[in-house]
Write a structure and sequence with these properties.
8 strands, 8 helices, binds NADP nicotinamide-adenine-dinucleotide phosphate, 46% helix, elongated, alpha/beta
Protein backbone atom coordinates (compact mmCIF):
# COMPACT_ATOMS: atom_id res chain seq x y z
CA UNK A 1 0.00 0.00 0.00
CA UNK A 2 1.49 3.43 -0.89
CA UNK A 3 2.74 5.34 2.11
CA UNK A 4 3.46 9.05 1.97
CA UNK A 5 6.14 8.87 4.66
CA UNK A 6 9.60 9.41 3.29
CA UNK A 7 12.74 8.05 4.94
CA UNK A 8 16.44 8.91 4.75
CA UNK A 9 19.12 6.40 5.72
CA UNK A 10 22.32 7.68 7.30
CA UNK A 11 24.70 4.85 6.40
CA UNK A 12 24.72 2.37 3.55
CA UNK A 13 26.27 -0.64 5.30
CA UNK A 14 25.03 -4.16 6.03
CA UNK A 15 21.82 -3.18 7.82
CA UNK A 16 20.76 -0.28 5.57
CA UNK A 17 21.45 -2.48 2.53
CA UNK A 18 18.61 -4.83 3.55
CA UNK A 19 16.28 -2.57 5.56
CA UNK A 20 15.96 0.24 2.98
CA UNK A 21 14.61 -2.03 0.18
CA UNK A 22 12.39 -3.90 2.68
CA UNK A 23 10.77 -0.61 3.79
CA UNK A 24 10.41 0.53 0.18
CA UNK A 25 8.61 -2.73 -0.63
CA UNK A 26 5.96 -1.95 1.99
CA UNK A 27 5.29 1.47 0.42
CA UNK A 28 7.67 3.84 2.23
CA UNK A 29 9.61 6.20 -0.02
CA UNK A 30 13.36 6.12 0.58
CA UNK A 31 14.36 9.63 -0.30
CA UNK A 32 18.12 9.67 0.33
CA UNK A 33 21.10 7.60 1.43
CA UNK A 34 24.03 9.24 3.19
CA UNK A 35 27.55 7.85 3.29
CA UNK A 36 30.86 9.63 3.80
CA UNK A 37 31.90 7.96 0.57
CA UNK A 38 29.39 8.89 -2.15
CA UNK A 39 30.14 5.69 -4.10
CA UNK A 40 28.85 3.61 -1.17
CA UNK A 41 25.67 5.70 -0.87
CA UNK A 42 25.11 5.47 -4.63
CA UNK A 43 25.45 1.66 -4.61
CA UNK A 44 22.46 1.41 -2.27
CA UNK A 45 20.49 4.32 -3.80
CA UNK A 46 20.69 2.49 -7.16
CA UNK A 47 18.72 -0.44 -5.68
CA UNK A 48 15.86 1.92 -4.74
CA UNK A 49 13.31 4.03 -6.69
CA UNK A 50 13.77 7.83 -6.76
CA UNK A 51 16.50 7.82 -4.16
CA UNK A 52 19.48 10.18 -4.11
CA UNK A 53 22.97 9.57 -2.73
CA UNK A 54 24.49 12.30 -0.56
CA UNK A 55 27.70 12.83 1.40
CA UNK A 56 26.58 15.76 3.58
CA UNK A 57 24.38 15.81 6.69
CA UNK A 58 22.36 18.97 6.00
CA UNK A 59 18.78 17.72 5.54
CA UNK A 60 17.10 20.98 6.54
CA UNK A 61 15.11 21.04 3.27
CA UNK A 62 14.65 17.26 2.96
CA UNK A 63 11.15 15.83 2.36
CA UNK A 64 11.99 12.92 4.72
CA UNK A 65 10.24 12.80 8.08
CA UNK A 66 12.12 9.75 9.42
CA UNK A 67 15.93 9.47 9.59
CA UNK A 68 17.41 6.04 10.27
CA UNK A 69 20.97 6.31 11.55
CA UNK A 70 22.66 3.01 10.64
CA UNK A 71 26.34 3.79 11.22
CA UNK A 72 28.79 2.00 13.56
CA UNK A 73 27.80 2.43 17.22
CA UNK A 74 30.80 4.60 18.04
CA UNK A 75 29.84 7.08 15.28
CA UNK A 76 26.12 7.52 16.15
CA UNK A 77 26.65 10.39 18.62
CA UNK A 78 29.02 12.33 16.34
CA UNK A 79 26.77 11.90 13.32
CA UNK A 80 23.69 12.94 15.35
CA UNK A 81 25.45 16.16 16.40
CA UNK A 82 26.17 17.01 12.76
CA UNK A 83 22.68 16.22 11.43
CA UNK A 84 20.67 19.29 10.37
CA UNK A 85 16.97 18.44 10.25
CA UNK A 86 13.51 19.89 10.34
CA UNK A 87 12.62 20.12 14.08
CA UNK A 88 9.68 17.68 13.72
CA UNK A 89 11.73 14.91 12.10
CA UNK A 90 12.02 11.55 13.86
CA UNK A 91 15.56 10.23 14.29
CA UNK A 92 16.19 6.60 15.20
CA UNK A 93 19.33 4.50 15.50
CA UNK A 94 19.56 0.74 15.04
CA UNK A 95 22.14 -0.21 17.64
CA UNK A 96 21.86 -2.88 20.33
CA UNK A 97 24.02 -1.29 22.99
CA UNK A 98 23.80 2.46 22.32
CA UNK A 99 21.34 4.34 24.57
CA UNK A 100 18.51 6.24 22.86
CA UNK A 101 19.73 9.37 24.69
CA UNK A 102 22.71 9.60 22.35
CA UNK A 103 20.09 11.21 20.04
CA UNK A 104 19.13 13.58 22.87
CA UNK A 105 19.24 16.74 20.76
CA UNK A 106 16.16 15.61 18.80
CA UNK A 107 12.78 15.84 20.50
CA UNK A 108 11.40 12.96 18.37
CA UNK A 109 13.88 10.14 18.75
CA UNK A 110 13.89 6.40 19.06
CA UNK A 111 15.50 3.05 18.41
CA UNK A 112 14.83 0.25 15.93
CA UNK A 113 17.00 -2.71 16.95
CA UNK A 114 16.54 -5.83 14.81
CA UNK A 115 17.81 -8.94 16.58
CA UNK A 116 19.44 -10.54 13.56
CA UNK A 117 22.78 -10.64 11.79
CA UNK A 118 22.96 -8.79 8.45
CA UNK A 119 25.63 -9.05 5.76
CA UNK A 120 25.24 -7.46 2.33
CA UNK A 121 25.82 -10.72 0.48
CA UNK A 122 23.18 -12.78 2.35
CA UNK A 123 19.43 -12.30 1.80
CA UNK A 124 17.28 -11.97 4.89
CA UNK A 125 13.60 -12.60 5.59
CA UNK A 126 12.53 -9.69 7.83
CA UNK A 127 9.21 -11.28 8.71
CA UNK A 128 11.00 -13.67 11.10
CA UNK A 129 13.24 -11.02 12.70
CA UNK A 130 12.23 -9.76 16.17
CA UNK A 131 12.48 -5.98 16.45
CA UNK A 132 12.99 -4.00 19.67
CA UNK A 133 11.91 -0.40 19.71
CA UNK A 134 12.11 2.62 21.96
CA UNK A 135 10.68 6.13 21.57
CA UNK A 136 11.02 9.49 23.32
CA UNK A 137 7.31 10.42 23.16
CA UNK A 138 3.89 9.11 22.07
CA UNK A 139 4.08 10.73 18.65
CA UNK A 140 7.41 9.02 17.83
CA UNK A 141 6.15 5.77 19.35
CA UNK A 142 3.14 5.65 17.00
CA UNK A 143 5.23 6.39 13.89
CA UNK A 144 8.00 3.93 14.87
CA UNK A 145 5.48 1.17 15.72
CA UNK A 146 3.72 1.67 12.35
CA UNK A 147 7.06 1.39 10.56
CA UNK A 148 7.94 -1.70 12.63
CA UNK A 149 4.64 -3.41 11.81
CA UNK A 150 5.09 -2.82 8.09
CA UNK A 151 8.23 -4.98 7.83
CA UNK A 152 8.66 -7.02 11.01
CA UNK A 153 6.17 -9.62 12.17
CA UNK A 154 6.98 -9.10 15.84
CA UNK A 155 8.10 -5.97 17.65
CA UNK A 156 8.15 -4.95 21.27
CA UNK A 157 9.26 -2.03 23.44
CA UNK A 158 12.49 -2.46 25.36
CA UNK A 159 14.43 0.05 27.49
CA UNK A 160 17.99 1.02 26.48
CA UNK A 161 19.26 -0.84 29.56
CA UNK A 162 17.49 -4.13 28.71
CA UNK A 163 18.38 -3.77 25.03
CA UNK A 164 22.09 -3.60 25.84
CA UNK A 165 21.77 -6.79 27.94
CA UNK A 166 20.00 -8.46 25.01
CA UNK A 167 22.80 -7.29 22.73
CA UNK A 168 25.41 -8.79 25.09
CA UNK A 169 23.55 -12.12 24.90
CA UNK A 170 23.47 -11.73 21.10
CA UNK A 171 27.25 -11.22 20.98
CA UNK A 172 27.78 -14.51 22.86
CA UNK A 173 25.19 -16.48 20.89
CA UNK A 174 25.84 -15.07 17.42
CA UNK A 175 29.16 -13.27 17.04
CA UNK A 176 31.27 -15.54 19.26
CA UNK A 177 29.56 -18.62 17.85
CA UNK A 178 30.40 -17.48 14.32
CA UNK A 179 34.00 -16.81 15.32
CA UNK A 180 34.24 -20.37 16.69
CA UNK A 181 32.91 -21.64 13.35
CA UNK A 182 35.57 -19.58 11.59
CA UNK A 183 38.27 -21.19 13.75
CA UNK A 184 36.78 -24.63 13.05
CA UNK A 185 36.84 -23.87 9.32
CA UNK A 186 40.53 -22.88 9.52
CA UNK A 187 41.35 -26.21 11.21
CA UNK A 188 39.28 -28.14 8.63
CA UNK A 189 40.76 -26.24 5.67
CA UNK A 190 44.34 -26.71 6.79
CA UNK A 191 43.73 -30.49 6.99
CA UNK A 192 41.82 -30.75 3.66
CA UNK A 193 38.61 -31.64 5.48
CA UNK A 194 35.42 -30.11 3.98
CA UNK A 195 33.96 -27.59 6.46
CA UNK A 196 30.43 -28.65 5.34
CA UNK A 197 30.95 -32.00 7.16
CA UNK A 198 30.37 -30.06 10.39
CA UNK A 199 26.96 -28.68 9.31
CA UNK A 200 24.72 -31.45 10.81
CA UNK A 201 26.64 -31.28 14.10
CA UNK A 202 26.34 -27.50 14.34
CA UNK A 203 22.65 -27.51 13.39
CA UNK A 204 21.85 -30.19 15.98
CA UNK A 205 23.81 -28.22 18.62
CA UNK A 206 21.68 -25.10 18.03
CA UNK A 207 18.39 -27.07 17.83
CA UNK A 208 19.20 -28.99 21.02
CA UNK A 209 20.14 -25.84 22.97
CA UNK A 210 16.72 -24.34 22.21
CA UNK A 211 14.86 -27.65 22.75
CA UNK A 212 16.28 -28.74 26.11
CA UNK A 213 18.29 -25.68 27.20
CA UNK A 214 22.07 -25.23 26.68
CA UNK A 215 22.70 -26.01 30.36
CA UNK A 216 21.37 -29.54 29.72
CA UNK A 217 22.97 -30.02 26.32
CA UNK A 218 26.76 -29.70 26.88
CA UNK A 219 28.86 -32.65 25.68
CA UNK A 220 32.57 -33.00 24.86
CA UNK A 221 35.84 -33.64 26.67
CA UNK A 222 35.62 -30.73 29.16
CA UNK A 223 32.29 -31.74 30.73
CA UNK A 224 33.48 -35.39 30.80
CA UNK A 225 36.67 -34.21 32.55
CA UNK A 226 38.56 -36.14 29.88
CA UNK A 227 42.04 -34.67 30.42
CA UNK A 228 43.71 -37.14 28.03
CA UNK A 229 41.71 -35.77 25.08
CA UNK A 230 42.06 -32.15 26.21
CA UNK A 231 45.87 -32.59 26.52
CA UNK A 232 45.97 -34.07 23.01
CA UNK A 233 44.03 -31.10 21.64
CA UNK A 234 46.31 -28.62 23.44
CA UNK A 235 49.34 -30.36 21.92
CA UNK A 236 47.77 -29.99 18.46
CA UNK A 237 47.43 -26.23 19.12
CA UNK A 238 51.07 -25.79 20.19
CA UNK A 239 51.80 -23.68 17.08
CA UNK A 240 48.81 -21.43 17.72
CA UNK A 241 49.19 -20.11 21.30
CA UNK A 242 46.23 -17.71 21.00
CA UNK A 243 43.83 -20.48 19.99
CA UNK A 244 45.30 -22.80 22.63
CA UNK A 245 44.57 -20.11 25.25
CA UNK A 246 40.95 -19.88 24.04
CA UNK A 247 40.66 -23.69 24.22
CA UNK A 248 41.96 -23.73 27.80
CA UNK A 249 39.78 -20.78 28.94
CA UNK A 250 36.60 -22.23 27.44
CA UNK A 251 37.30 -25.73 28.78
CA UNK A 252 37.84 -24.32 32.30
CA UNK A 253 34.66 -22.32 31.99
CA UNK A 254 32.64 -25.40 30.98
CA UNK A 255 34.08 -27.38 33.93
CA UNK A 256 33.44 -24.57 36.45
CA UNK A 257 29.96 -23.82 35.12
CA UNK A 258 29.07 -27.51 35.44
CA UNK A 259 30.36 -27.61 39.04
CA UNK A 260 28.20 -24.58 39.89
CA UNK A 261 25.01 -26.13 38.45
N1 LIG B 1 24.93 -5.80 10.73
C1 LIG B 1 24.21 -6.32 11.69
O1 LIG B 1 24.13 -7.55 11.80
C2 LIG B 1 23.43 -5.46 12.66
C3 LIG B 1 22.38 -6.04 13.37
C4 LIG B 1 21.63 -5.25 14.25
C5 LIG B 1 21.98 -3.90 14.43
N2 LIG B 1 23.04 -3.39 13.75
C6 LIG B 1 23.39 -1.97 13.97
O2 LIG B 1 23.22 -1.23 12.77
C7 LIG B 1 24.19 -0.18 12.74
C8 LIG B 1 24.96 -0.27 11.43
O3 LIG B 1 25.62 -1.52 11.39
P1 LIG B 1 26.14 -2.15 10.01
O4 LIG B 1 26.49 -3.56 10.26
O5 LIG B 1 25.19 -1.79 8.92
O6 LIG B 1 27.49 -1.31 9.83
P2 LIG B 1 28.46 -1.26 8.57
O7 LIG B 1 28.13 -2.34 7.60
O8 LIG B 1 29.82 -1.14 9.11
O9 LIG B 1 28.04 0.12 7.86
C9 LIG B 1 28.22 1.34 8.51
C10 LIG B 1 27.89 2.51 7.58
O10 LIG B 1 28.23 3.72 8.25
C11 LIG B 1 29.18 4.46 7.49
N3 LIG B 1 30.18 4.94 8.45
C12 LIG B 1 31.21 4.26 8.99
N4 LIG B 1 31.88 5.01 9.89
C13 LIG B 1 31.26 6.21 9.91
C14 LIG B 1 31.49 7.41 10.62
N5 LIG B 1 32.50 7.52 11.50
N6 LIG B 1 30.67 8.47 10.38
C15 LIG B 1 29.66 8.36 9.50
N7 LIG B 1 29.38 7.23 8.78
C16 LIG B 1 30.18 6.18 8.99
C17 LIG B 1 29.75 3.51 6.45
O11 LIG B 1 29.93 4.07 5.16
P3 LIG B 1 31.07 5.07 4.71
O12 LIG B 1 32.35 4.43 5.21
O13 LIG B 1 30.93 5.16 3.25
O14 LIG B 1 30.73 6.35 5.41
C18 LIG B 1 28.59 2.51 6.27
O15 LIG B 1 27.68 3.00 5.32
C19 LIG B 1 25.06 -0.33 13.99
O16 LIG B 1 24.57 0.53 15.00
C20 LIG B 1 24.84 -1.78 14.38
O17 LIG B 1 25.00 -2.00 15.77
C21 LIG B 1 23.76 -4.12 12.85
Amino acid sequence: MPNETSITFIGSGNLAWHLAPALEKTGYGINAIYSRDLTNAAALAKRLKNCIAVDHLDFSSSPSSIFIVAVPDKAIGTVAKQLKLNKDAIVVHTSGTTAMEVLGSFKNRGVLYPLQTFSKNKKIDFSSVPLFIEASNDYSKTIIATLAQSVFEKHCYLSSEKRSQLHLAAVFSCNFNNHMLHMAKNIADSNDIPFQLLAPLVQETIDKAFDIGPENAQTGPAIRLDHTTMDAHKAMLEDNPELKEIYITLSHHIINQNKAQ
